Amino acid sequence: MIIGERIKLLRKAKKLTQTELAKAIFVSYQLVSKWERNLSEPTAEMMFTIIDKYQLPFDFFLDPVTQQTQYTAKEVILNAFLESMIASYDKRPTIKKVAQVASLEPEHVALYFANSDELIYEFFNEVDRNIKIEIEAQIVSHHDLITIFINNMAPLLYDKRVQLHVLYTRPYIKGIWLAFIKSKYKRILLAHHQVDEQEGLALEYLIEVLTAFISVWLSQPNPEPLAAFQNRMRCLTGRPINQWL
């Protein structure tokens, strides 16, 4: 199912007109119409906005069947995208450039990704997929959030340090990545913890602080070893989360 069809189904499920959906996400109804008629597609940032607004799964715009049957080709393209970003600090790689790195024709890449926004969206989900599954399982077990961050999340982040270093250092993608990750983990936490208004503010602070820790750590040309980062975090956070509130 293509993106325009998913947007149309979402709108109808919510009993919204194109105008009402457009107002809710601050775009014109003409743009929504173009999406649904497959004349254009939302940017990666807009897809995240729609997901956040309507509390959708973060893989809402992905096709599971296509993922399974075409995984190898997508993996090659995603790896080429990462290589292209490593080579380009201040300019987002084009589909043409990614195709060149992957030794594919641009038309071949376009079978999977119509533009770089779709590629970014898939790349984010691929980087975060296993991390999200593991961390959500820990949160469900009601473990202390700082302990989860240090003992469970930090090792997973370290394993992905090459990809995450790029996401935290490339100006053309860092802002979108931060919005994606903050929104996603806030939703996970709220799904498993009831918080009042004051605790909600504390949660906002906590997410900002932990994101800043990760950004500083993984933005370094040679991030410090995992054990050193974990020890640093234990020294800095030294108290259980309920004492942060």
TrEMBL record:
It holds the Pfam family HTH_3. It comes from the Bacteria. The keyword DNA-binding applies. Keywords: DNA-binding. Residues 7-61 form the HTH cro/C1-type domain. PROSITE patterns: HTH_CROC1 (PS50943). The keyword DNA-binding applies. PANTHER family: HTH-TYPE TRANSCRIPTIONAL REGULATOR XRE (PTHR46558:SF11), TRACRIPTIONAL REGULATORY PROTEIN-RELATED-RELATED (PTHR46558). This is Helix-turn-helix transcriptional regulator.
